[in-house]
C-alpha cells in the first residue's frame, strides 16, 4: 500500500496574502481520494521523532530562535512567511513526515509526503518558504541509524536545492543532484555534488534528454541504496515563478524516469512535493497527482 504523510497542519492558516502556496495541501488529498488513486488508510499523521534529529542537522542556536520566535525581521522576511509557533510546529511535523515516509519506503519501495521538499532551509537559517530542511534531516537520519549507506537526493524543483547542498556537503554518504533553472532563484547558488542549470524556456524534450543524460550515470556510479526525490511542479510553463517551458505531460514523464529507475533498481524512494505556483490551482493539483498515480501504477 502506498503510504502518504499528511496532517491538517500542512495547510497551516496564514494571514491574507500568504495563503496561496498552502491551498494544494488540502486539495491534493481530496483529489487523490475522489479519483480512487488512494484510500483513506493510505494517509498517516506523522509521529514525533524528537528534537534530537532537528539539531543533528540544524544548528542549535537557530532552532532555539525558531522555537522562541526570536528571529530578526530580516531573517523572518527571507523565509517568506510571518513567524508563529503554529508555523514552526508545521515545519517540524513536515520533517517528521518525511522521516517516517522514508521508513515506509524501505518496507514498501516507495512512500510520499504531501508536503516537504523544504530545500531552501540552511543549517543556520530559513529562506524561500522553508524553515527546516526535511530532505537533509531525513538523509542524515537514514545514514545515522544505518537504514541506508548511500542516499541520493534528486532535486528536480525549478529552484536549486541550495540549503540541502549546504547541509549535506560534508556527508560523503549523501549525493546531492539539483537540476534547476540557472537564472532563477536563488541568485547565489550553493555547490551540490551535481548541479545542472537549465536555460529559461527549456522544453519537455530538452529537459527529459538532459535528465536522462545525467541521472542514469549517477545511479550507476553512486549505487544509492535510498533515493529522496524532490518533485516540485514549478517546472511547468504555466508556473509564475518557474520560467521553464514544460507541460504537465512532460512533468509526468520526468517523474516516470525517476520512479521507474528506483523500481527497476530496487532502491527505496521517498517523494516530497516541493514547489508549484501556477495561477490555476487545478494545474498544480494535476501535476502533483500524476506523481501519486505513477507510484501506484509502478509499485503496487
Keywords:
hydrolase; 8-stranded parallel sheet; 300 residues; Arginase, Chain A; alpha/beta; 10 helices; Histone deacetylase; 8 strands
Task: Give a structural overview.
InterPro entries: HDAC_classIV, HDACs, His_deacetylse_dom, His_deacetylse_dom_sf, Ureohydrolase_dom_sf. Belongs to the histone deacetylase family. Keywords: Hydrolase. It holds the Pfam family Hist_deacetyl. It is a single chain. The model has no long low-confidence stretch (mean pLDDT 95). Helix 7 links the parallel strand 4 (151-155) and strand 5 (174-181). It is built from ten helices and eight strands. It has one domain: Histone deacetylase domain (Arginase, Chain A, 3-Layer(aba) Sandwich), CATH 3.40.800. It has helices spanning 24-35, 52-57, 60-67, 73-79, 85-108, 134-144, 162-168, 204-222, 248-264, 281-299; strands spanning 3-5, 43-44, 110-113, 151-155, 174-181, 194-198, 226-230, 269-272. Helix 5 packs across helix 6, helix 6 (134-144) runs parallel beside helix 7 and helix 9 (248-264) runs parallel beside helix 10 (281-299).
Secondary-structure map with pairings?
Layout: E1 3-5, H1 24-35, E2 43-44, H2 52-57, H3 60-67, H4 73-79, H5 85-108, E3 110-113, H6 134-144, E4 151-155, H7 162-168, E5 174-181, E6 194-198, H8 204-222, E7 226-230, H9 248-264, E8 269-272, H10 281-299
Parallel strand pairs: 1-2, 1-3, 3-8, 4-5, 4-7, 5-6, 7-8
| Order of adjacent strands in the largest pleated sheet | 2-1-3-8-7-4-5-6
- CATH T-level fold name: Arginase, Chain A
Major pleated sheet? 8 strands, parallel
CATH architecture: 3-Layer(aba) Sandwich
Distance between the termini: 7 Å
What's the SSE pattern? Answer: EHEHHHHEHEHEEHEHEH
Total of domains: 1
The overall pLDDT average reads 95
**pLDDT under 50 segments (min length 5)?**
none
Number of strands: 8
CATH homologous superfamily assignment: Histone deacetylase domain
Q: What gyration radius follows from the Cα positions, in whole Å? A: 17 Å
Question: How many H/I helices?
Answer: 10
* Rough outline: globular
Proportion in helices: 40-55%
Which percent band covers the strand fraction? 5-15%
Organism: Belliella filtrata
InterPro entries: HDAC_classIV (IPR044150), HDACs (IPR000286), His_deacetylse_dom (IPR023801), His_deacetylse_dom_sf (IPR037138), Ureohydrolase_dom_sf (IPR023696)
Protein name: Histone deacetylase
Family: Belongs to the histone deacetylase family.
